[in-house]
Amino acid sequence: MDILTIILTFIAVSLFLLFLYISIIALKVFTGQSIKNPNYPPVHGTVFHELFYYRKLLDYHTETAKKHRTFRVLGPGQSDTYTTDIRNIEHILKTNFDKYCKGKYNQDIVVDLFGQGIFAVDGDKWRQQRKLASFEFSTRVLRDYSFAVFRRNATKLVRILHKLSDDGQAFDMQNDKEDILSRFLVESKRNPYKMNDQYLRDIILNFIIAGKDTSASTLSWFLYMLCKNPLVQEKVAQEVEDIISSQDNGANLDDFMANIINATLDQMHYLHAALTETLRLYPAVPFDGRCAKMDDILPDGYRVKKGDGVYYMAYAMGRMPYIWGEDAEEFRPERWLKNGIFQSESPFKFVAFHAGPQICLGKDFAYMQMKIVSIALLHFFRFKLADDTKNVTYKTMFTLHIDGGLHLCATFRTPS
Predict the structure, then answer these.
(1) pLDDT of residue 275
(2) Any idea where the domains of the chain sit in the sequence?
(3) Structure-model confidence comparison of residues 259 and 202, the more confident one
(4) Which CATH class is domain 32-174+176-412?
(5) β pairing state of 70-75 and 43-46
(6) Quick one: which of 178, 198, 226, 232 has the fewest CB in 10 Å?
(7) CA distance 239 to 371
(8) In Å, how far from its chain's centre is CA 2?
(9) How far from chain centre, in Å, is Cα 97?
(10) What are the residues facing 394 on neighbouring strands?
(11) CA distance 51 to 22
(12) DSSP state letters, 147-212
C-alpha cells in the first residue's frame, strides 16, 4: 500500500508540474508577449503545438506563415523565430553571418549522427572542412569520375526496371581517383591531433548523407510529381528525345547512355526546370536555421535575443503566394523558363541548397546526378502510381522523405 501511495503521489506531482509548466507557457501566449512588446515577432504557439502537429508539422508551419511571415514558438527557456521573409533569410545567412551560429541546441540534436562533421560544427572546424572540400568539388577529376559513376548506376537502374516492367511488378523508388577522403587523409597527416579517425568518420558521413540521401529523396518526389502531372512527364520525355535524337540512340542501352555527356545535360532546360520546381515544393531539407550569438534586429523590424533560434522554412516558402504568385502551390516548371531557357532565382528566395557562405558545395553534382538518372528513366519508361487512391505525404524528419515509400509501375516506352 505504501509503495502504491508513493507511486500515485509521484504521478500526481509530475502531472501538476507539467500542468504548471503548460499553464505558464499558455499564459505567455494568451496574454500576448508580442502585444506587450511589439518589437518581437508575434507568438504563435509553443513546443506543445509542435508536438501535437508533428506528423503534419510542415503544413502547420505553412498555414501559420500565410498569416505571419515571421512568428515565434515558445520553448523552455527560449523562443524560436520562424520566418519566410527573404530579407530575414539573407540577413542571417549572409549579411550578418558572423552574428549567428548553429547553436548548442541544434548541435545537440545532430551530434550523434553527424559528430564533428561540417553540418554540426561552427568556427574553425567548419572553415577547415569547407575549405578542403571546396578544393575537391572544383576539380575536374571529381566531376569526371562522378559523371561516370552516375551514368553507370543509372544504367543498372534501367536494367532493373526493365525486368520489373516486363513482369508487371510495382516497385518502391525510394577506378582509383583522388577523392574527398584522400584529401582529408593528407590533411590528417599534417595535423594528426586535429584530424583523428573519429573526426574523419564524421566528415565523410556528412558528405555521404548530403550526396546520397538528399538526391535520392528528391528523385522520388520528382517521379511522384511526374505521375501526378502526366503532361509534364511527357514534355520531359520529349525534350530527351529531341535533344538526343540527333545522335545514334537506337534501342541499345549502353549506346544511349554513352551519348549522355555534359553538353547534353546543359541543353535540358525543361528537365532542369522540372527538377527545380520539385525542389521548390519538396526541398530535401524542409527547414533549417541558425542561433543568434547576440541581440539583433531583423530587416523586417523584429528583434531576436541572444540564444534564440532563427529558422527559415524552405517547405513553407515554396507555398507562399507573396513569393511565387497565386499559383505557388501548383507544380509548374514553366515558371523557371523564359523563352525556353532556364532562369535561376535568388538563393534567398529558392533556399533548397542553403545560401550565403554555407551554400551547398554539391549543388551542381546533385543536378548532374538527378539529370542523368531522369534522362535514362524517362527515355525508356513511362511511370504511374501503383495506387492512385493512396495519399502520398511526407514523413517529418531532418530530410524530406515520402512516408511509406513511393510505389510505382513502369511501362516500357515504344521507340519512336
Answers:
(1) 98
(2) 1-31, 32-174+176-412
(3) 259
(4) mainly alpha
(5) parallel
(6) 198
(7) 12
(8) 54
(9) 21
(10) 402
(11) 13
(12) HHHHHHHHHHHHHHHHHHHHHT--EE-------HHHHHHHHHHHSTTTS-HHHHHHHHHHHHIIII
Q: Are 340 and 311 in contact (CB under 8 A)?
A: no
Q: What 8-state DSSP symbol labels residue 250?
A: -
Task: Measure the CA–CA gap between 12 and 16, rounded to whole angstroms.
Answer: 6
Rounded to an integer, the average pLDDT of 311-319 is 97
Annotated binding site: 360
Winning range, highest mean pLDDT, from 144-148, 243-247, 290-294, 358-362? 290-294
Q: Are 335 and 279 in contact (CB under 8 A)?
A: no
State the binding site for heme: 360
CB within 8 A of 321, min separation 6: which ones? 66, 328
Give the pLDDT score at 166. 75
Lookup result for grid cell 554555407: 358
Question: 367 Cβ partners below 8 Å, 6+ apart?
Answer: 265, 272, 275
**Does 266 score more than 90 pLDDT?**
yes
pLDDT in tens, 5-55: 666 666 766 665 665 566 555 545 544 444 456 778 888 888 888 888 889
Residue 90 CB-half CA count within 13 A: 10
Helix (H) or strand (E) holding 291: strand 288-292
What integer pLDDT is reported at residue 12 of this predicted model?
A: 64
